[in-house]
Amino acid sequence: MIYVGIDVAKLNHCASFVDSDGVILVEPFEFQNDHSGFQTLLKHLTSFSQDDLLIGMESTAHYAENLTCFLYTRGFHICIINPIQTSVLRKGKIRKTKTDSEDTYLISKALKMEEYRLFTEQDYNSLQLKNLCRFRQKLMKARTKVKIQLVTYVDLLFPELQYFFKSGIHGKACYELLKTQPNPDRIAKMHLTRLTNLLSKSSHGHFKQSHAVQLKELASHSVGIKNDTLSLQIFQSIQQIEMYTEQLADVENSIREVMNRMDSVIKTIPGIGALNGAMILGEIGDISRFEKPCQLLAYAGLDPSVYQSGNFKAARTRMSKRGSKLLRYALINAAWQITLVNRTFKDYYDLKISQGRRHYGALGHVAHKLVRVIHKMLTNNVAFHLA
Predict the structure, then answer these.
(1) What are the two backbone dihedrals, phi and then psi, of residue 307, each rounded to the nearest 5 degrees?
(2) Could you give the CA distance from residue 2 to residue 65 in angstroms, rounded to a whole number?
(3) d(Cα 119, Cα 217) in Å, to the nearest integer?
(4) What's the rounded Cα separation, in Å, for the pair 176 and 155?
(5) Are 196 and 249 in contact (CB under 8 A)?
(6) Topology given in CATH for the domain delimited by 2-119
């Protein structure tokens, strides 16, 4: 077996080739994180039999992802190593050195000493899900921020509008109105037929002529600030919200495509759809990383915190919230959804409520139970069968 240790960095990577006896076959060499650099590495790799090569890299945020995907799609055997492993090996050396060249040897040594796990298609798909789901969360936060700003602008320009749209201003009818006439004076001067048609079409017939008359009355007596700059801010805020909504739809379609390709057993859990399941799978990655459900709970930050001082030890504490925020959100959401459709989980939720737990405290206990089910399902690749 030939071990290829690659020390990953942002701009330049470093690699070396060592055989099973520790003989250096290729001295450490640098290659850039671009097409020419990857071709340089590929040239060295193709000089050996692909079946004899095992490539190791440390898990270094996103810096190794493009190289990992590049090599995996070309059929190479890849192993992602925890940096703690190489750190322990480094401390075992008498002389304290830390160079890119030395790190490549340490990675190769870690491959020989530890039980490694190859990067698989499931890892490839999970990586895609993780990136897509985290990007989706960023888009949702950005859209929410703009929505809050829009409410502020409308409150200044046309505060009476909130009384007309009972369900809130974030609806298609309101957006179409404000994009057409983002000013109460212009709305008051609109022809009644035109305003009626605009409201009726955008609301699928919900608003009638009587509503248009009511809206014109509100607009004509509005106490809002007469400011064209606010109209511009409202118009562009709506454009941003619609842009984010279109982008979210595209991202969610991509997530569903990956989930269909994976065909994971997690979709058999009642209440867990493609999006929620994608967040869970993307954050978990390889389930074999977690030997016990309690480790998965800790990774999600759902494990209870510990408070002890002297002879006192708290019997009830809050969850630690130290792990993956997105995974914790997805599991709590999944816990709530499953209580709505599954009697076993609903009874457990009701039990915790009867014991004095609040809603989210009870959901935290349901999530503990759900994590044990998910861990067993993914480990054994079995479908959900709990009554």
Answers:
(1) -130, 115
(2) 22
(3) 66
(4) 17
(5) no
(6) Nucleotidyltransferase; domain 5 (3.30.420)
Contact 18, 111 (CB under 8 A): no
Res 81 pLDDT > 90: no
For 218-270, how does the pLDDT look when each residue is reduced to its tens digit (9 = 90+)? 999 999 988 889 999 999 999 999 999 999 999 999 999 999 999 899 999 98
Structure tokens at 241: 């919200």
Q: What's the token pair of residue 242?
A: 């619609």
Residues in contact with 145: Cβ distance below 8 Å, sequence separation at least 6, in sequence order:
none
Mean pLDDT check: name the lowest of 104-108, 319-323, 368-372.
Answer: 319-323
| Residue pointed to by tokens 């504490």 | 317
Gap between the terminal Cα atoms of the chain: 49
Total count of residues recorded for the chain? 387
Q: Give residue 157's pLDDT.
A: 93
Contact 198, 148 (CB under 8 A): no
Q: What is the 3-state secondary structure (H, E, C) of the chain?
A: CEEEEEECCCCEEEEEEEECCCCEEEEEEEEECCHHHHHHHHHHHCCCCHHHEEEEEECCCCCCHHHHHHHHCCCCCEEEECHHHHHHHHHCCCCCCCCHHHHHHHHHHHHHHCCCCECCHHHHHHHHHHHHHHHHHHHHHHHHHHHHHHHHHHHHHCCCHHHHCCCCCCCHHHHHHHHHCCCHHHHHHCCHHHHHHHHHHHCCCCCCHHHHHHHHHHHHCCCCCCCHHHHHHHHHHHHHHHHHHHHHHHHHHHHHHHHHHHCCHHHHCCCCCHHHHHHHHHHHCCHHHCCCHHHHHHHHCCCECCCEECCEECCCCCECCCCCHHHHHHHHHHHHHHHHHCHHHHHHHHHHHHCCCCHHHHHHHHHHHHHHHHHHHHHHCCCCCCC
Q: What angle separates helix 325-341 from helix 274-284, to the nearest 10 degrees?
A: 140
Amino acid symbol at 285: G
Angle between helices 192-202 and 172-180 (to 10 degrees): 140
Q: Quick one: average pLDDT of 168-191?
A: 92
Please state, as a whole number, how many other Cβ atoms lie within 10 Å of the Cβ of residue 84.
10
Task: Show me where the domains of the chain are located.
Answer: 2-119, 136-249, 264-380
